[in-house]
Amino acid sequence: MTQLKYTYERFIKHTFLTKRFFYVWGIAVFVFILSFSFDFLFPLAKLILIFLGAFTLLDFILVQLYDKKVACTRTTPHVLPLGDEQHIGLYVKNNQNSIAKFEVVDELPEEFQKRDFSFKFYLTAGEEKTLSYNVRPLTRGAYKFGNCNVFVSTLLGFIQHKIVFPLQVTTPVFPSSVQVKKHELLLFNKLHTFQGVKKMRRIGHSYEFEQIKNYTVGDDIRTINWKATGRRNQLMVNQFGDEKSQQIYSILDKSRAMNMPFNGLSLLDYAVNTTLVISNTAIHKDDKAGVLTFNEKIGSFVKANKKPGQLKLISEVLYREEESSLEANYELLYNAVTRLIKQRSLVILYTNFESYYTLERYLPVLRKINRSHLLLVVVFKNTEIEKYSYETASDTLNIYHKTIGKKFLSEKEMMVKELAKYGIQSVLTAPQDLSTQTINKYLEFKAKGWI
Question: Nearest to residue 168, comparing CAs of 141, 142, 145?
């Protein structure tokens, strides 16, 4: 039974007639039709029929010889980064002793929505070819790559044979480690100031003593260590560094407000990537990083820590987070922050207030959190409305739409001012600039000694 199934799949199910077959046989049929009116064409039509039958049979035999003579492998990374392009490689080799035409159709995960994805090329005897393409995952989850299908046809081109390579593999899409490495390089590169991430110059000092050093022009005279100056008979000053082991918590709102898409990614996905970036930055600065998620109920909680496996733990937690279709419960968030975060910390809240009225509803809760912690509220710009509102209006309806759009934009500015009025720090940023802006704020707070 197994042998019968194999024979059916190889010689019938996986064998196809090409367009060339129908074109050529169509010509033969046309000659036969003409022979009804022109008798002298009938012998020619029979001769054409014999030759075509022979060549078709020969092509069928030749193309079947490639079944075990083609090699194909695929290289995929163990993890795909969310929102970043990743390289996928295909390797094809012709082990048959003749030239052939190949068409490779790779079965991509359904999340990419690609249905006409193929490569066409010729390979001579023993020749190999490396193919490559890029994919950009826009949602977290498990992406299933299917089989790789190789269609082979000879130079005759009447018959095409399909060879299926079982290369199924499931690859998870995690928060972007590419963004983490990118901002890590920018942070510690001497030229990072030109790339958007800036190191803030310290004003004054924090409370953590670092060392005693020789006085240089520009040092704060209030830090002169008179005892050390007397012993060394030269001016000596105390040098202070950043306070270490401070807690940095990223709080992610998973409600429907964070489901708004920008450039393929939702606001929550941007917040997820930035959380991983800021956590990595905090750990490199000897601070502790933690995560709390919520919507209508409290989700995941990762206690702030700087142990070696903390970043991996945060990445695994963020991988499982999904947007909700309900409103966020900020009263429940306040109770969770009070209960779970005992020490004063930098709390970065990723949320989306689309109207001034929404901010007014939640402002009392934000003020309560800000009394116990240093709260940084992320306010997202609506870049689509911003782009639309500055285009030239063509009629009265467009003018009306642009006026409403500018009203939304002005409300965003009002939100930032309203938060500042109550001493709440905020950052107004486009989604694509979120990581850079958040790191800059964190470094600013460190430079000012606020954390």
Answer: 145
Contact 90, 102 (CB under 8 A): no
Domain assignment present for residue 3? The answer is no
Domain assignment present for residue 8? The answer is no
The residue-averaged pLDDT of 160-175 equals: 93
Under 8 Å CB-to-CB from 441, ≥6 apart: which residues? Answer: 376, 425, 427
Q: Are 184 and 227 contained in the same domain? A: no
Orientation angle between helical segments 267-284 and 434-448, nearest 10 degrees: 40
Number of domains into which the chain is organized: 3
- pTM, rounded to two decimals: 0.76
User: Cα dist. 25→38, 305, 397 in Å?
Assistant: 19, 74, 60
For residues 214 and 228, give the distance between their C-alpha atoms in angstroms, rounded to a whole number.
10
300, with CB counted inside 10 A (0-12, 13-18, 19+), is: middle
**Per-position DSSP letters for 161-180, written without gaps between them:** EEEEE---EEEEEES-HHHH
Confidence of residue 213 (pLDDT cuts 50, 70, 90): confident
pLDDT tens digits, 251-269: 999 999 898 888 888 999 9
Tens of pLDDT, residue by residue over 262-315, are: 888 899 999 999 999 999 999 988 899 999 999 999 999 999 999 989 999 999
Nearest to 96, CA basis, from 71, 131, 60: 71
Tokens representing 255?
């409600």
Measured distance CA(212)–CA(214) in Å, rounded: 7
Residue 184 CB-density burial (10 A; 0-12 exposed, 13-18 middle, 19+ buried):
middle
Same domain for 323 and 394, yes or no, is yes
DSSP symbols for 368-388: HHHHHSEEEEEEE--HHHHHH
